[in-house]
Amino acid sequence: MRYLIIAAATLSLAACATQEPVKTAETKPAAKAPQCWSGDHGKFFDVGAKTAISGVDVTCEKTADGKNTQWMGKKH
Fold this sequence. Notes:
Layout: H1 2-16, E1 35-38, E2 43-46, E3 50-53, E4 56-62, E5 69-73
């Protein structure tokens, strides 16, 4: 009788145990595109955005490796 109670308790605990969902490509958050920070405006800008920082016209552009961004001044 004691073994039956122990077995029932073990099975009910095992049934209630939670498992973490398997992470697949669908459940992973999408990587954010790099953005440029402007302290003058206090916000991030997307690639291609144009603004003036400290009176200079600039554009947010990707770096050569494509992983980061930087502000580039107007080309003459």
